[in-house]
Amino acid sequence: MQLEINADLAEMRAAVRRFTQDQLEPIAHEIDLTGEVPERTVPLLREHGYLGMRMPAEFGGGDFDLPTYCLVLEEFSRSHRIFTLMLDATSGLNPIAIARFGTRGQQERYLTGLCTGTLHASFALTEPDAGSDAQAIKTRAEPRGDGWVLDGRKHYISGAHLADVVLVMAVTDAKKRGRGGITAFLVDKNTPGFSVTRVDTTIGSDPIKLAELSFENCELSSASVLGEVGQGFKVAMESLTSGRMGVACSCVGAADRLLEMSAAYAKERYTFGKPLADRQAIQWMLADSATELATVRALVYETLRRIDAGEDVGSAASMCKLSASEMVGRVADRAVQIHGGMGLVRGFPVERFYRDVRHYRVGEGSSEIQRMMIAREVLR
Ligand SMILES: Cc1cc2nc3c(=O)[nH]c(=O)nc-3n(C[C@H](O)[C@H](O)[C@H](O)COP(=O)(O)OP(=O)(O)OC[C@H]3O[C@@H](n4cnc5c(N)ncnc54)[C@H](O)[C@@H]3O)c2cc1C
């Protein structure tokens, strides 16, 4: 059973899947062997129109809607999580924030590079004492002369060690905090006082790295403020719904591939003279994964259709992110079990998927935070 978002996207899916299988999957194997993303990857994605998909055409973007973008995320995540991150770098929070809130000067300086993958941006909100409780950030920006001076630390910032510009959230009014006291700043990589102090490798694939950043007496001009002073939370929250839907679709794609690999292996692997596929214990695992995947997919596609129709979906995007990220964790666990030893050995995709999908329950608002928001709406 293949549910679809709409008829047009059903047609497009076949072409994206072909591209993923023929062009991206060999790169995924290379990444597994070397731990590095080959240099030809960005030009390949650019050449096929996959970079900057959601950004304005004026800056080299594709002007695609959210459902189309999510379909591509879903298909790419059938191969390697890194490809979805590369899409997000050119169409996600940072470029969207600059397109929406930036001055003409900021847009011209950063957007074409971000949309085409020649510039890299990171988003720095999380700190050692402020993760889920983002309003507790301590990094502060004080006015000095015509500009600002930034002091503080950030950690777990995706790809910030490679970023040309970092979008940094800092407190500008300690009394107001989330209600007008946090401001977004664009900090270029060579700004004196800004440094990358550590790079962490996670449970996920090697190229997916998180960086710790330090800002010490880091002087910024007034032109580095993105949006209005005190509008930082608005900037950060702007792409929340699309971010959650993007994660949900990536989880659906990863689960789809895991189920496909599990079914294929169950048919080819013989134990005690019969294929695993003939065993009820294995069939039930496949059935549970297929049912959970179809249920989540239906919720995610229905929510995408409502967003596309301009509806306010309330906490539905949180429900999608929560249910999809929890579902893919269970599907990955069953896939490892069905593959036995092969599911645990480095270099086989199932093992890599199992590690990569663990990120989804923590990043972009953990499962507990999604539940908190859903419950808030239920109790209102
Ligand atoms: C792969 C990855 C990429 C990331 N990239 C970025 C990035 O680019 N930029 C950025 O700014 N941050 C990034 N983060 C950080 C991420 O946003 C935080 O890890 C996340 O918000 C959780 O914060 P924390 O790690 O401090 O955990 P904590 O907030 O300390 O939470 C610890 C645990 O307690 C739970 N918890 C917290 N509060 C409650 C509560 N009130 N009730 C019940 N349970 C609760 C949480 O769900 C979690 O399970 C990334 C994280 C990951 C894993």
UniProtKB/TrEMBL annotation:
Acyl-CoA dehydrogenase/oxidase N-terminal domain span: 8-117
Cofactor(s) in the UniProt record: FAD
InterPro entries with a match to the protein in the record: Acyl-CoA_DH_CS, Acyl-CoA_Oxase/DH_mid-dom, Acyl-CoA_Oxase/DH_mid-dom_sf, AcylCo_DH-like_C, AcylCo_DH/oxidase_C, AcylCoA_DH/ox_N, AcylCoA_DH/ox_N_sf, AcylCoA_DH/oxidase_NM_dom_sf
Presence of keyword Iron-sulfur: no
Start and end residues of each Acyl-CoA dehydrogenase/oxidase C-terminal domain: 230-378
Alphabetized Pfam families for the sequence: Acyl-CoA_dh_1 (PF00441), Acyl-CoA_dh_M (PF02770), Acyl-CoA_dh_N (PF02771)
Entry protein name: Acyl-CoA dehydrogenase
Organism: Pollutimonas bauzanensis
